[in-house]
Amino acid sequence: MRIHVIGAGIIGLACAHELVRRGHRVAVVDPAPGSGASHAAAGMLSPAGEAWHGEPEAWDLGVRSAARWPSYAAELGVALHRTGTLLVGHDAADAQLVGRQVELLARLGVDVAPLGPIELRRREPTLGRVACGALLPDDHAVDPRAVVAALLDRVEVVPTRPDERPDVTVLATGSRLPAPFARLVRGVRGEIVRAHCDDQPRHVVRGWVRGESVYVVPRPGGEVVIGATVEEHSRPPVVTLGGVERLLAAARILVPSLDRAELREAIARDRPATPDHLPLIGPVDDTTWLAAGHFRHGVLLAPLTAHLLADSIEHGRVEPAVDPRRFDCKERTS
Ligand SMILES: Cc1cc2nc3c(=O)[nH]c(=O)nc-3n(C[C@H](O)[C@H](O)[C@H](O)COP(=O)(O)OP(=O)(O)OC[C@H]3O[C@@H](n4cnc5c(N)ncnc54)[C@H](O)[C@@H]3O)c2cc1C
Question: Which ligand 1 atom is nearest residue 10's CA?
Answer without folding.
Answer: 25
